Amino acid sequence: MRAAVLHEIGQDKLEVVDDVEATGFGPGKVKIRVRATGLCHSDVSAMTGVLPQPAPFIPGHEGAGEIIDVGDGVTGLQQGDRVLMSWLPACGVCPACKRGQTQLCLAGFMNAGTPNFKRPGGDVFGFAGTGTFAEEVVVDAGCAVPIPDDVPFEIAALIGCGVTTGLGAAINTAKVETGASVAVIGCGGVGISTIQGARIRGAAQIVAVDPVASRREAALRFGATEAVSPDELADAKQRITGGEGFDYVFEVVGKSATARTAYETTRRGGTLCVVGAGAMDDFLQLNMFELFFDEKRILPSMYGGGDVLRSYERAIALWRAGRIDLESLITHRVQLAEINEALTQMRTGEALRTCIEI
Q1: What is the spatial distance between Cα 84 and Cα 132, in angstroms, rounded to a whole number?
Q2: pLDDT digit string (tens) for 333-342?
Q3: The pTM is what?
Q4: Do 178 and 172 touch, CB atoms closer than 8 A?
Q5: Which residues are bridge partners to 272 per DSSP?
């Protein structure tokens, strides 16, 4: 079957090959025919080594498709079911799951270290235990979440990661208060979803911050009340908050420099929510006095900061009701053979989300 493979960490292009086999099928597993997958910035971060991932690997973790085979012991799923893929399935029995913090379950991360593809030259890993830039993938049954018939595959794919992450940051983690002032730094697919989450929560001002003009324009269509470049953020803080700072600031880039800017843009007693996935050697510096004196809450948000199954259901309900716009998040569509074009669209900021139709 066809798949897009990164041979070595640090390469900037993928090779589309047709000699890949999805492996590991058996008890507790399902095989899925991938129909659509989104390109998330985390895929690029894994390619560059910012996020740890063994190579060679097949990127992609934001996908949806149809079940083509079900292993022994799997219940609640059958051949032909339409599903989205969760790259972070909950085991249900670990301490995090028992506390209701299923987004902190480590079972999914264990999958990332086990190859689930092979080529004639050897094993190939799937990014985050999935690897949706392939025609077929074998995953744990818990990764396959049934979706209603009225949800298109491309919409379900977005809900599988970016939409859930962004909405959840505003709704679950920060719990934005009605009438609050909000700034969102980084307005790709996850940032736009954060903006939509803040709007749903009733924020009065939502300032979108991004260096790319087209993304700033898009942010206004999705609910931002103002959109500025990073150089204009200090002026916006002065004009909108009287220099005090925003009630909530979301960092959706994954870099210490923007996290520091976000901290400085948050008012005393306000909330900084860190959504971007960054590198292990990129350190955010804060001094002990400002931590004490400013009393700013620093809240990391992992995969939307809540139960992912409930978050999926909520996203579908909001989409059905017209409360969130998911179709317009998909600004570009390509075939798997054009995957490197999609990478360029993301790196330049041209795309909010590119849907790869497989």
Answers
A1: 11
A2: 999 999 999 9
A3: 0.95
A4: no
A5: 249, 298
